[in-house]
Amino acid sequence: MLPYNHTTLTSILSIVKRIELEKFLKFFSYLSRLSCYQHVMLFGCSIAFPECVSDGDESYGLLPCRSFCETAKEGCEPVLRMVNSSWPEFLKCSQFRNHSESDLRRVCFSPKQERGKQCRFLCFISLQPKKFR
């Protein structure tokens, strides 16, 4: 379950590109099982199914913040190296926006952590494998 109610599929066309959604989410499920970063599944889900935010007449998808990506990469890259792999190029953190405290409008998504609680997010239940072109 995602921590937001509205999503958009815009990201699938831009970041996930030609990767099958099922493979993309299985990759993050694998990382989650490796316990390399507490919110790695949420990071993957927020790319595949970005939060849709309405700002008056305008709606837009919030992709993960650069700091969210960097934290996920920092936690998981050492684990990936142990299996002779690396952080995927299509997930380079520089493509994500920086969070700015002075912005009145939200520009990116990051997990809201509640003190003392550990959350797990699953976003791939009952998806049918499809190829996106």
From TrEMBL:
Top-rank lineage group of the source organism: Eukaryota
Disulfide bonds: C69-C93
One BP term from GO: canonical Wnt signaling pathway
Cited InterPro entries: Frizzled/SFRP, Frizzled_dom, Frizzled_dom_sf
Pfam families: Fz
Annotated signal sequence range: none
Domain FZ: 1-111
GO molecular function, one term: Wnt receptor activity
A Gene Ontology term for the protein's cellular component: plasma membrane
Keywords: Developmental protein, Disulfide bond
Coiled-coil residues: none
Keyword Translocase: no
Alphabetized PANTHER family for the sequence: FRIZZLED
Protein's recorded name: FZ domain-containing protein
High-level lineage: Eukaryota, Metazoa, Chordata, Craniata, Vertebrata
